[in-house]
Amino acid sequence: MKKPSAEKDSDEYRHRRERNNLAVKKSRQRSKQKAVDTQQRVNELKEENERLEAKIKLLSKELSVLKDLFLEHAHNLADGGPASRDGDSANGQ
């Protein structure tokens, strides 16, 4: 009776094992590279997020200042403040 062609001592078996070992090695390298790439992307996104949060904070402060200026101006107009006096001086009064 003939032994299976995948006998451990056969050239065919050794060749198939070498090919499999190379395939496993490549697969592990790709997996490690993918993990490195993913971590790099995570770091980039964290940095971008920090920059955007800082920008939000700055724009929120600016909005608050502008709101305060607007409300003060509106209040002055309602009270007949400086804005209406400028209109009076234009009429020569």
Q: How much of the residues is beta strand, in percent?
A: under 5%
Oligomeric form: single chain
| Fraction of helical residues | over 70%
Poorly predicted parts: none
First-last Cα distance: 124 Å
Order of helices and strands: HH
Mean pLDDT: 87
Q: Please provide the count of β strands.
A: 0
- Described by the principal axes of the CA atoms, the overall outline is rod-shaped
Cα radius of gyration in angstroms: 38 Å
Structural class: mainly alpha
Main beta-sheet strand count, sense and barrel state: none
Structure annotation, total helices: 2
Describe this structure in words.
Helices cover 83% and strands 0% of the residues. With 93 residues, it is mainly alpha-helical. The protein is rod-shaped, with a radius of gyration of 38 Å. The N and C termini lie far apart (124 Å). The mean pLDDT is 87.
